[in-house]
Amino acid sequence: MPLTAGTNEPWDWEISNRNSWRNWSFKELWAYRHLLFRFVKRDFLINYQQTLLGPLWVVLQPVLTLIVYVLVFGKWMGVNTGSSPPVLFFLCGILLWGLFSDLFTGTAFIFTYYSALYNKVYFPRLIIPFSVAGTHLLRFLIQVVLLVVVLVYYALYRNFHFTLNVWILVLPLAILLTALFALALGLIFCILTARYRDLSNIVHLGIRLFMFVTPVIYPVSLVPSGIRWFVNVNPLSALFEVFRYALLGQGLFTMGQLLYSTVFIITIFFIALAWFNKQAIRLIDVA
């Protein structure tokens, strides 16, 4: 006997080709939460299957980058890291920038990488970018363990005076805002790269150039006061300084700058979310 629904029977949700600025609901996303967790688990495992070192690459990549940064920027170029040991200073920047860079580039091409899945199966389109964000946040949390180990080593054996301060409570906010900013930019550029494939070159070039206006390899205090405003316009600058100040006790920022970063990133995130919801259905056929 075929199952039929009465005209007056309420629906949980309805799948249609209509698009709007608010083409999603929290209830629907929550119903697909298990799919989200499966995507996170799959993406995390698939990156390290059939590799020699497996999940060790999660910590090996920042360690190799750290060695290069310490040699090039610390030893040869002599970047002044203040009272913080160069290893700790550069490691903080590497980990937080890695979260932003990997999350952004991983989200910016979702319609290219997942076009077959989008075309064949229905699920909330936001599940994919959210799963990418979850995967990179998981990798970042594992790398934070490496940072804590190095921090404890320097405190015990290198006479680095580490003292907890109240800004340690703001640390999760700095990490969350960094991830939200990367996700917001990724949602915007995934629409653009689906329409204009040659923009992928600009994305990779732009993320490299953006690193130099973000205090990853240098403290804001080293920037000449005449052009410091240019670095402070970047909403990530205050977050990187807060991140280092909470862990190393060194950073140059104001409450106004932190408030600006928070408001700017949250605003951009909701704009990106609305635009993604508006354009996602149209781009399924384009991708």
What does it look like?
This protein is mainly α and 287 residues long. It contains 12 helices and no strands. It has one domain (36-286). Helix 8 runs antiparallel to helix 11 and helix 11 crosses helix 12 (255-286).
Total E-strand runs: 0
* Content-based structural category: mainly alpha
Global mean pLDDT: 83
Number of domains: 1
Number of helices: 12
Query: How much of the polypeptide forms β-strand, as a percent range?
Result: under 5%
Radius of gyration: 21 Å
Q: State the helical fraction.
A: 55-70%
N-to-C SSE string, H for helix and E for strand:
HHHHHHHHHHHH
* Largest sheet geometry: none
Stretches where pLDDT falls below 50 for ≥5 residues? none
Shape: globular
Query: How many angstroms does the end-to-end distance come to?
Result: 39 Å
